[in-house]
User: What shape does this take?
Amino acid sequence: MTWNPRDMQIAPRLASALRPGPVKPRHALLIQPFYPKDPRTSFGKHVLAPSLALTSIAAATPSDWTIAYWDENLLQGPPPHDPFPQVVGITVHLTLADRAYALARWYRERGAKVILGGLHVTACLEEAAVHADALAIGEGVQLWRRMLRDVETGTLRPIYRGDFRRPYRNEPPPRRDMLPKGCFLTTASLIATRGCHNRCGFCYMATHDVKMPYQMRDVEQVVDEFRATAEPYAVFTDNNLGSRPDYLRELCRALRPLEKIWSAAVSIDVTDDPSLVREMALAGCTGVFVGFESLNGENIVDAGKKSPAPEDYARRVRVFHDNGIQVNASFVFGFDHDRPGVFEKTVAWIEENRLTCSTFHILTPYPGTPLFRRLEAEGRLLHKDWRLYNTSHVVFRPKHMTPEQLTDGYAWCYRRLFSHRSIWHRRPVDFKAVAPYLAMSYLYKRSNRLWRFLIRRQLTAAVWRPLVEQSRRRHLRFRKQLAADTSAAPRQGGSVVTAGV
Ligand code: SF4
Assistant: This one.
């Protein structure tokens, strides 16, 4: 049976009898609420790099306010109450909405003003409104300062609306200095672009009222931020760093002199131009997260995703591998053309193409998306318990299998992927890269007890940084060879830093 510790499943207790001290004027507390972790996946993925949501809000705070940050997922207990904040800002996503509302209730009952923001607030405004003094709909960074000023003057309104059309470059850099040291593999979460050239029907980007044109920050801004972190490794949190190939190329050229490494989410069409993939490698890209979604082209068409045909995926994966870039492939199960054989077929493809890691999801209709509306209209939603809308539970009736078959197939895929046999089968072709690959794979995929220990003791960075630094050095050597090599000979295994990431 899968090891499943209580503190990874249940949020820390909020003391109902606690009476805090007086409200400290002009003090704000920003909270990332707890969400239960799927024990079938690696606990490590939750501390890879921090979300930018709260550190970006913190950066927009007026200088005469003090501000604190609390991420409940770092397993350090419930959020602080001393000093007691005048304002509490909570980011709300679908699966953690219940916890966000519980926190909101607790702080409001004791005298704080609670502001809720995040995608779920935009998608389910009426539901969220009863739990907050004010809602930030849309882009919160541009609203935060105004909301705090309105708190000061006692004129806080119930709803504030921001849009995603303001120039992105005007936003201040996130306050990374607020992050607890040692808790993340890297604190260098970066963002260069916003939006995506696709609008897949199942993606939260397709939520009604979310109109997000693709925007790009100046490459110099991004590079300066990366340089300033002093971290050897960054994670780009962009939805799709590759939506504009010309911009990505320019960014890569500017990143190259830093001699650091990074990973990012891109869509597979970035391989349309192999020279761009080479530029990514030369700029330090060691891994990409790619949403393949399905090996069945009919599913891709139904989802409205503009994507190359699945028959061409393997060739495109080789373009990444040939440039030393590892691929973390994301697959979704439960589309209308999926049948019970989909699980074995998908894992066999992953193994055949030696993908270092893969991420599986059960198709989940997020409220406000076209998929949600369709399944609701067809009467196929099983319930609206948002806590289970987390891509590891079946919340709708699949077309060609039972919910149990879908649940079991999803779990089987992770068991198989994390098995000794599968890890060995997917080792890099380059024998020199095999040992670091195995080390990283076992640490990442089969060490949840260790991860919990590291997270609780705030030792994640201390343990992982030396491995990351080794990866960076190895990648620098690889890059040199890549720059000198103009042949098309395959060369896999430049780095392993993104094993499982
Ligand atoms: S390509 Fe990815 S990020 Fe873009 S809309 Fe589709 S699922 Fe969302």
The chain has two domains: 6-168, 181-484. Confidence is low (pLDDT under 50) at residues 493-501. Residues 6-168 form a domain with the Rossmann fold fold (CATH 3.40.50). DSSP finds 17 helices and 14 strands in the chain.
